[in-house]
Specification:
With about 280 residues, this protein is of the alpha+beta class. Strand 8 and strand 9 form a beta hairpin. Helices cover about 30% and strands about 25% of the residues. The chain has 7 helices and 15 strands. It starts with a helix and ends with a helix. Helix 1 runs antiparallel to helix 2. The protein is globular and about 50 Å long. An 8-stranded mixed β-sheet has the order 4-3-5-6-7-8-9-10, with helices on both faces. It has a 5-stranded mixed β-sheet with strand order 12-11-13-15-14, with helices on both faces. Strands 1-2 form a two-stranded antiparallel sheet.
């Protein structure tokens, strides 16, 4: 498997999907993007999600017809249990798009045996793409560029507390006592706790060094691997909420997808806030 070629396929597909999303947002009359309810937890889906996903599926399956794909809206395409599985989040930040907020990205991951080996995150608004291959570092590049610069966020403690992002899965209820306890602890000690409704955007910000950490509770399986791999390859440490090891696989239970992510030198302090 040529992972460099797979990265090229994923980057080009994500950037093409991003161009579609950007054009759709600009052309929406009165901000209307065909919003419909999705599930019973208040989530939504738009026409742009579906169009972006169709493009991504066509690009990936044309290049790798024997691979399986798990997409945010379509679910599993192809046979489960194979060696190679792609994860596609065609519009991470759908709720933002639904209200006209330009904070959204496209995410693609390639997993081998459930473990991500390639991750791509593209931001159509800033025209930036971030990508990582396991063991080969993470890159940041302008959309359309054939080269990039290596990501290596510095450790820079903030005098008034860390700037953190929070993410949680859609199945988490508002009266979840663990969520209330975690968010209360973070809000008491953090300079700011961001809730962006676009986890992959948070991962890109952490990999760049814009924020100091992310805390996730029962995160969604489709978008976690690409972002977590990008951050790890940039030098970010990821732990389970109890400080134990964490693996960014898409299988397992929702509880396996609760985590803390930060620069290694910031990790002890962030874990201390949670305990």
């Amino acid at each position: 498997m040529d992972l460099d070629h797979a990265r090229t396929v994923a980057v080009e597909a994500a950037e093409a999907a991003g161009a579609l999303l950007l054009e759709g947002m600009r052309g929406a009359v009165g901000g209307a993007v065909g919003v419909r309810a999705k599930g019973d937890a208040g989530d939504v889906v738009t026409d742009l999600d579906l169009a972006s996903e169709k493009l991504l599926l066509e690009r990936i399956l044309t290049a790798y017809p024997s691979h399986a794909v798990i997409a945010e809206e379509s679910g599993l395409v192809g046979a489960a249990g194979g060696e190679w599985t792609w994860l596609v989040d065609p519009l991470d930040g759908t709720n933002n798009v639904a209200i006209g907020l330009p904070a959204y990205v496209v995410g693609v991951a390639l997993c081998r045996g459930g473990r991500p080996v390639l991750g791509v995150v593209h931001d159509p608004v800033s025209a930036q793409t971030w990508s990582a291959i396991r063991g080969h570092g993470a890159l940041s590049a302008p959309a359309g560029s054939s080269s990039g610069v290596r990501l290596a966020p510095p450790y820079a403690p903030r005098p008034h507390g860390p700037l953190l992002a929070w993410t949680q899965g859609y199945d988490v209820t508002r009266d979840d006592t663990a969520v209330r306890a975690l968010k209360t602890a973070l809000e008491l000690h953090a300079r700011r706790l961001l809730q962006l409704w676009a986890p992959l955007l948070s991962w890109a910000m952490l990999a760049r060094g814009d924020i100091d950490g992310i805390v996730g509770y029962r995160a969604e399986a489709v978008d976690l691997p690409a972002g977590a791999l990008l951050a790890r390859e940039a030098g970010i440490e990821i732990r389970a909420l109890d400080g134990g090891p964490f693996e960014e696989c898409f299988d397992g239970t929702p509880d396996d997808r609760s985590f803390v992510a930060a620069h290694p030198r910031a990790m002890p302090g962030l874990l201390a806030l949670l305990t």
